[in-house]
Design a protein that fits this description.
Length: about 140
């Protein structure tokens, strides 16, 4: 069973608890650290648990929030040992099957292997270039 939900403003604890044991893909997870640069922290895997964090300090301005303005975040702990903060802004959570997750993982690892191979080939060319003048058609 696959199910996709979009959350504007984050999730609640009931939703976080409902994810435990499920395989999820989070293609959109907008996180804004204190430097102000929003980054999409996407991830996928099986949820092992969650935690709720209540933050009362504004790290950007160096002061405490008023009690009614504290920030609440949920973090999911994955079976691979990773922990991910879930966005309070733009968050898409797809519940996926284990088979879909395995397919995604296989595709990701294959792409990574190709990138690693290409990087190694570039490194060889650079190393040879440092040792001699490269000739088109002979060296690359």
């Amino acid at each position: 069973m696959e199910n996709t939900n979009t959350y504007l403003g984050g999730i609640d604890e009931t939703t976080a608890a409902s994810l435990v044991g499920k395989f999820i893909h989070v293609p959109q997870n907008d996180i804004t650290p204190p430097d102000g640069q929003t980054v999409n922290m996407w991830f996928a895997g099986q949820v092992a648990g969650y935690e709720k964090a209540v933050i009362g300090y504004d790290y950007v301005n160096g002061e405490f929030f008023t009690p009614e303005n504290v920030q609440v975040y949920f973090n999911v702990h994955m079976t691979d040992g990773a922990t991910w903060v879930l966005s309070n802004k733009q968050l898409i959570i797809e519940e996926i099957t284990e088979e879909k997750f395995q397919q995604m993982l296989t595709e990701h690892l294959a792409k990574q292997a190709l990138l690693d191979q290409a990087e190694a080939e570039v490194e060889q060319i650079v190393t040879r270039a440092q040792n001699k003048i490269l000739l088109p058609g002979e060296d690359f």
